Amino acid sequence: MASFTDLQLEQLEPGIWCCTIDRPKALNALNGTVLSSLLEAFAWLQQQDDVRAVLLTGAGEKAFVAGADIAAMQTMTPLQAREFSQLGMQVMATIEQFPVPVIALVNGYCLGGGCELALSCDFILASDTASFGQPEVALGIPPGFGGTQRLARIVGKNHALSMILTGERINAAEALRIQLCNQVTEPSQLLELGLSYGRKIAANSPTAVALAKELIHKGQNLDLQYGCQMETELFALSFSGADQTEGMTAFLKRRSATFSLS
Ligand code: HXC
């Protein structure tokens, strides 16, 4: 267990950690303090020996994250808004580039900067009470933590335009239909669903998982030819570590592979 301001980190099982944004009275809205805590928490996790999967969620039963903190933004100058956006962008990039999968457990409102935070995770699991939206235009601003870019890449330009320009919320079933989230379950089952994904990931080679995550995220911004070249290079690189030997030997000897973090 490690605590940061308005954020908790807890090891739930060997290799599986849960990061909880803990500002339930403000529906876990992201202010500068929470964003800095997220950066500190992921830097701290990177120093730990046994991190195979991270679940990211919001405290309380109502919200994952209801957005960037509107009270904190209300009087910002353009320069302060720029710095705030850059801080958020840094958090999203840190999660996206984190060498371990990060799974968003969306347990309620997932709006604005909260939706952008979930989009920076590797995938999204949602409770059937969750709702997603990018309501920024109603506040006189466009999204500022990467929503116009990541949402369009994940659900396609048409759904992104519809969500961002109307500002309307969509429910979990609709989020599943447009592939904004990967799976929906009852609120009481959400953590267990996250754990089940975490356990499957944790049983695999951490090196191979990290390489595959990197390839998929970087490949989104490359053409097919370069993406495939990069895949060849990282595929070859995987043969220089112990996991490839262990994984293939275990298969051929008909036993389970045991991968340790190097
Ligand atoms: C600050 C927030 C907040 C937010 C909720 N709260 N969302 N505070 N920033 N984004 C606070 C409320 O002020 C209130 O505080 C408490 O949380 C409970 O919220 P209520 O509104 O009373 O709850 P409810 O009526 O159930 O409505 C829930 C809600 C609504 C539909 C989620 O709170 C809402 O619309 N919130 C704003 C959603 C939004 O517009 N998000 C995008 C923000 S812009 P008190 O003290 O009164 O109890 C953004 C930009 C990102 O994210 C990019 C930045 C660079």
How many β strands by DSSP?
11
Strand order of the largest sheet: 1-2-3-4-6-8-11
Task: Evaluate the radius of gyration.
Answer: 19 Å
Main CATH class of the largest domain: Alpha Beta
Q: How large a portion of the residues is in β-strands, by DSSP E?
A: 15-25%
Spell out the helices and strands N to C: EEEHEEHHEEHEEHHEHEHHHH
CATH H-tier superfamily of the largest domain: 2-enoyl-CoA Hydratase, Chain A, domain 1
Unreliable sequence segments: none
Q: How large is the count of helical segments?
A: 11
Shape: globular
Present as ligands are: hexanoyl-coenzyme A
Number of domains: 2
State the CATH topology of the largest domain. Answer: 2-enoyl-CoA Hydratase, Chain A, domain 1
InterPro entries: ClpP/crotonase-like_dom_sf, Enoyl-CoA_hyd/isom_CS, Enoyl-CoA_hydra/iso, Enoyl-CoA_hydra_C
Organism: Maribrevibacterium harenarium
Family: Belongs to the enoyl-CoA hydratase/isomerase family.
GO molecular function: hydro-lyase activity; isomerase activity
